[in-house]
Write the structure tokens for this entry.
Amino acid sequence: MKFFLIITICLFNECENFQIIKTFDTKMDCRTYSVEVVEKIQNELPDSSGRTWCVNELELKIIKENLNLKDKSFEDITI
């Protein structure tokens, strides 16, 4: 099973949803990577808030149907 990282970043009451363009073999690998992403975001956007989710393919499909996800690589995360 593959896992995907979804991130919501909020800044000044505006939120964006992103799917990180990377797949993970385990949920733990995804969660470990999400810690790096959160640290980067907090360093670059200290006034931001947000949340991360590690989801499987079925959950990702449901999320994509209900949210406007933007595909991003780790290096490209900006608002």
